[in-house]
Amino acid sequence: MAHKCDYEVVVDFNEDNITAWYYAKYKDKKIDVYEHVMYLDGTEEKYIRDNLRKNPMGGYLVAFPGEKETMPYYGEKIVKLGDFYQFDSKYIINLSYQFDVDSFRNKLIELEPYFKYLIRKIKSIRYEVIFKYFVLAWKHKDNVSIIEWLIENNQESLVTDNNLKYNLNNNIFHFIKENKNIENMDIRAIKLAVKENVSYEAAKRAVDYFYSDIHLEEYLHNQILKRNDISYYKDYKKMCIQLKKNFDDPYWRYPKDLVNAHNKVMGEINAIKLAKEQETIKKIQKDLSKKKNISKKYNFNDGTYTVYFPYDLEDIKEQADVLNQCLITAEYYKKYAEKKTILIFVKKESERIATCEISSTKNIRQFYMNEEDYNNCKATPELEKIMYRFLDTLPNTVRI
Question: Which residues are registered as beta bridge partners of 59?
């Protein structure tokens, strides 16, 4: 049987690294499932047990050695944990775990007492974040006091700059202090803002655009940077390419009045887009309407919860707005209309509370409640039971 587990992290300190062991715990069972090694030179290695899989509703599920293989979630077989293998993702697995953060901080302070104020100012309670700053302080021992100030003022991104000690001259540090209300500033944007005497926002938009053309850089500087609206050129170029304009032609590449040129191509784009959208929406609504009969056939209502297949575009739009979901922007509505996926809506009494995406074999692909709080939008145990009751009413192969 596969279980939802509690997780615990234990950190071992070695000569040139720390190693974090993740343990899955269920009742009296406990097993290590993930290993994260972080070195003082900034590199890291990650190892994960084979068959530790994430289910859309259940989270990470663990079948302990000696337990029977089962299939508790539709379409997904849970098998026994295997051996460790190297985990190549740049991310660590997202587990809520128990961890003695105070002991970890104290151990780092023992290793380097000079960093004690820095370590105590780090707000995070995750070992990997605390150790990352410890490594940065190790690399920049001459600037520990500056690193402390940056962390205290929500400028962690500046702390990670490899050339920190070369970039932080008096003018730049003064600029950072004056703009400390802007979190996680970009050192490139700060340097440009100081050099050109413009706002941080204008400079950030500038550095986000790749200056590969010296004439373009000069053009943008004269036309845009001082006016704080570099986004115009990015949009303008994208639309010209979309309309198949010859962007190598200076007429299109460097228009005399950028804003006027931007508005003209945008008008052309919008006219084409509107014509296509009107035709597409008619077809999508027609396809969705064909799902009405099967939606009514399998409509589930236990007096509190209603679970159903949507068959109206306005209903899908409202679901997306109320639950802060990307049903429209990511074009799930179109995939659903074209029978490429299946959507299920859940209401509690009259309130919209969840959206589920399944395959034709009832395999749950995604399940989200209100995504405004992304960390707390998974199904509750009560809602899981309702969903499985609904899925049990469906045939083994769902055609809608």
Answer: 55
At residue 157, the 3 state secondary structure works out as helix
Tokens 């007492």: give the residue: 113
Task: Look at residue 122 and give its three-state secondary structure.
Answer: coil
At 220 the pLDDT is: 61
Residues forming a β-bridge with 346 = 307, 354
Joined tokens for residue 331: 């074009």
Q: Which residues are CB-contacts of 345 (< 8 A; sequence separation ≥ 6)?
A: 307, 308, 309, 310, 315, 319, 352, 354, 355, 356
Q: Which two tokens stand for residue 239?
A: 């639309």
DSSP, collapsed to helix, strand or coil, labels residue 46 as: strand
Distance CA 395, CA 376 (A): 31
Sheet containing strand 59-62, edge to edge, reads 3-4, 59-62, 53-55
pTM for the structure as a whole: 0.48
What does the angle CA 29 – CA 33 – CA 1 come to, to the nearest 5 degrees? 50
CA distance 385 to 148: 49
pLDDT at 336: 93
Helix axes 170-178, 187-196, angle to 10 degrees: 100
Crossing angle (nearest 10°) for helices 258-289 and 313-322: 120
Nearest in space to 187 (alpha carbons), one of 171, 205, 170, 164: 164
CA dist list (Å): 178 to 148, 190, 194: 17, 11, 12
Contact between 193 and 205 under an 8 Å Cβ cutoff? The reply is no
The residue with tokens 């190297």 is 86
Alpha-carbon span 331 to 335, nearest angstrom:
7
| Of 277, 279, 341, residue with least CA distance to 309 | 341
Asked whether the beta carbons of 358 and 344 are under 8 A apart, the reply is: yes
Which of helix, strand or coil describes residue 140?
Answer: coil
Structural domains of the chain, with CATH: 3-99 (no CATH), 292-392 (3.40.630)
What pLDDT is attached to residue 306? 95
Q: Is 76 helix (H, G, I), strand (E, B) or coil?
A: strand
The token pair that represents 118 in the structure block: 């820095």
With a cut of 50, which residues of the chain have pLDDT below it? 73-75, 210-214, 226-228
